[in-house]
Amino acid sequence: MLPYYACNAVVLCLIFLDVIVYGLVLMEDKSDDKLMDLLVSHIFEKHVSPLSSELFMATRKRACCAFKATRALGIQDEEVKPVLLNLLKLFHMNWELIEAEDYRALIDAYFESKESKSGSDEKCLMEHSVHERPSKRPHLKQQEVQISSSTDSLSPVEKVISSSMSPKDSTCKRASFAFSSERLTVEPRRSHPQKEKMPPNCHTREHIKTKTKESVSDKADFAEPPAAFHPGNDCGLGSEAWSRVGGSTNGNNLVTRLGSQCDASSSKDRRYCNSNVLIASSASGEVKISLNCDSAVRCQNFKVPDFNSILKYLEDKYLMTHKLVTPEFSMKTLFEDLCECYVQAVQLHDPLPNNKAMRIGNSNVVDRKSTSSFRLSHSCNNLLKAKHKATACDQKRSVRSLNDITKGAENVKISLVDETGKEDFPKFIYIPQNIIYQNAYLIFSLARIADVDCCSSCSGDCLSSRIPCACARETGGEFAYTPKGLLKDDFLTACVCMRRAPKKDHFVYCQDCPLEKSKNEYLPEPCKGHLLRKFIKECWRKCGCHMTCGNRVVQRGITCNLQVFMTHQGKGWGLRTLQDLAKGSFVCEYVGEILTNTELYERNIQNRGINRHTYPVTLDADWGSEKVLRDEEALCLDATFSGNVARFINHRCHDGNLIDIPVEVETPDRHYYHLAFFTTRDVTASEELTWDYGIDFDDHDHPIKAFRCSCGSAYCRDIK
Ligand SMILES: C[S@@+](CC[C@H](N)C(=O)[O-])C[C@H]1O[C@@H](n2cnc3c(N)ncnc32)[C@H](O)[C@@H]1O
Hints:
18 helices, disordered N terminus
């Protein structure tokens, strides 16, 4: 209990504060007085009947709110005035239309009026309109710049950050999200040099930031422990797993509320009432997003809407307003992106064991203490990036895409997108099949395939015959594929186990290792060992079966919908699937130039010192079975200059969702074979496809030049 005098002091302080705040409100209003009066009289210029003071005041208030919304974008009232007058005329004084969607009509009209101007202003605004248009909408900007003072009243354990409108704003119809998971929105406290350089008509997020009372950067603090609280019933996420782990303060479980509140009482329009977005993550890495639109629930005749149609509606709306050019944009991917980013942000900011430095991107090693959110945003997706990037007219950011990198060479188109808009398109020649570079010794001849190695007496589909044909001999008398074209579970499991947990006897050591020999002809080092592999043998030309035979999967080429994209973890380009893939699906083959190891070694020497991605794989699956291999028989594939889409598949230590399996097609020996990628588990649309390159990060002699791994796997081998 507080003593009586202390209570009085508190009350007095509150009154004093109120007076100050009220004074500020008045001061601000006073400065606008003239303009407002002038504007309202302009509005009613042609008004014939006597104007009631109520109507005058109501109009004044609405105009005031409109200016507030545009001022938040750094636009001068004077500039908005003619636009507002025009719109009122156009809409026959219907304010609702102007106020709808956070004054979108007004803001769009303002920018459109600006765009039609000539000169440098125009150029700047054009760029602005392309890259900044989405953020013209105040509620979106709010997501990034406003933190509610109401968060102060929340318990520190919750750290739930929601937005609420200040008392001054409460009469304005404006829905606002405070996008402010503390750790997602931290910014370095520094001045922005671009701000000074910007032309006066470039209204940027930075402008907005300066106008908000309390910017995110003032609030956030990296040093604070991660927010964690029990996502109870109120957030609607109370599944067992979540509630079980919730409430702990170990930093693994996070709940962030992106709230939107507005004075419902003052808003007749239900669309602008309370809503909030809640994101929770569990220790196991799951992320759940809960949308709470209580105003919708309060609607008469409330029915649960079909979520897909809401997503479709949103997609259309965003495609229109954001002018996104990527054909793959969908709300689903946006949400997935949001989850991914959330998890990344969480991972990146988890305390590191022994205070070790944390790595962000390819080669950046930064001390945790000096880590700024600028780096965090660099490694996160563009939801976060946008916040930092779109600060000036000269900083372009637009999605760039290619429709088909294969130029028609594959059965399917493979698109490429760069959501950062910053990367040069990769330079290489797309080839759908391996080609010999120079010295590799390869003979594809029917004469080399003995009758016992093919099924000339078969017809139709070998998989449907009661007794498996000779082509199944390689896989123990059973075909590796199911009738649906997937790898059989047993076969896949055996391959994955050999790869992930190889036993000693899974390695073979060649007497005269071609890899070592290629480095030094005179004093070769002992062989480091090659992993024994399981092979698939597909039917081929000498076989009597049909091309649609179930034992011809890899040779029929890519059938799934793939996309090359710019990763957000500093890995460069990556490959993702745009469709769900069942476990055991064939994805693509690794295609490149067929080189001898000596040729590859020489290429690597030439490229030494050049900081670039490398793309070789060694075809060493059977090197142990022959005592000595001639140089021209010890082969590898290099996709650096010529290759297919597989050249974009990034490495993931241990638990990649793809596995590479050797496939014999046209040659009976195993000096040359195809390397085909199959999924190791069910993969969902938009997941990045990865495989374990099998590299030892300490072996600097490995044909794949060592890189700092940012695979994100819990089993990453490159943790130093
Ligand atoms: C076969 S390429 C993969 C495609 C490549 N990311 C690109 O942009 O073209 C292999 C190169 O990608 C990069 N890379 C692949 N996986 C990575 C990972 N887990 N972490 C960091 N870099 C990676 C490395 O530079 C590596 O040399």
